[in-house]
Amino acid sequence: MICLLHFPLKAKQKTHDATSLPSLVSNLIKNWEIEAYFKADLSNWRTIGPSKYTFAINGGRPQTAEYMLAVGTYNAIITEPNELYSPRTSDLASSHKTFKRMMPTFA
User: Fold this and answer.
1) Residue 80 neighbours by CB under 8 Å, 6+ apart
2) Residue range 27-47: average pLDDT?
3) How far apart, in whole angstroms, are the C-alpha atoms of residue 93 and residue 91?
């Protein structure tokens, strides 16, 4: 997942023309991340069509937005435990807390 929500503006490398495709994509990603982080009710999301949205990681099985919200955005992406993080022992709230601590620049 690209973490643009908390990315410091001073680190921004390029400013795209407001009407350009790169600007549209950048804003869409930022807004998606805000919704994924703060909106627990998919009917309030504007960046996706909840009934059509799916995502897959590294060729894995497509997952729904409901699944992502149920397990947490980070847990939906990091599906296998490793030496730094285990989605099996984290829920939505604890995963967000963990990643805020791991990446204080983005918090």
Assistant:
1) 87
2) 89
3) 6
